[in-house]
Every structure is written in C-alpha cells, then in structure tokens.
Amino acid sequence: QYILSQEQRIIRQAVSRLPDPQRLVIVMHHFEDKPVAEIASELGIPVGTVLSRLARGREALRRRLGAAVEA
For residues 23 and 57, is the Cβ–Cβ distance under 8 A? Predict the structure, then answer.
C-alpha cells in the first residue's frame, strides 16, 4: 500500500507540473474519465486540440516519470 501511495504522489506531482492546458485535459480525461468529445465541448475547443494537448501532456509525463523511475 505504501508503494501505491508513493506512485500516486509521484504521478500527481508530475501532472501538477504540466502547463495548464495540458494538465486540464489530462485530469479531465484520465482522472475524471471524460471522453475527448465531452472535454472539447466543455472547454469550447476543437477535438483535435484536445487530442494534441493529451499527446503533449502524455509525452511530458513519460519524460518526467521516466526520470523519476530511473532516479
């Protein structure tokens, strides 16, 4: 259980460091389980913009979390 909470802390910390637009769509999609179309509608942005922010956010998280795992 400690390991899981440690992993959760590391993930939340990495997410909190994302730029606001990326963080918002990551949280809405992965933590709130909202579909891409719903996120686009709620934010008033195109679906393609949501998808690109998700992709950029995920890539940033991969880099940050990869560095955390290697440390």
Answer: yes
Asked if 15 contacts 66 with a C-beta cutoff of 8 angstroms, the reply is no
pTM: 0.85
CA separation for the pair 64, 1 (Å, rounded): 23
Going residue by residue through the chain, which has 71 residues, state the pLDDT in tens, using 9 for 90 and above: 566 688 888 899 999 999 999 999 999 999 999 999 999 999 999 999 999 999 999 999 999 888 765 54
Residue with tokens 């950029």: 56
Which two tokens mark 34? 């909202």
Sign of CA pseudo-dihedral 37, 40, 46, 51 = negative
Alpha-carbon distance values, 69 to 14, 35, 53, 57, 61 (Å): 12, 29, 24, 18, 12
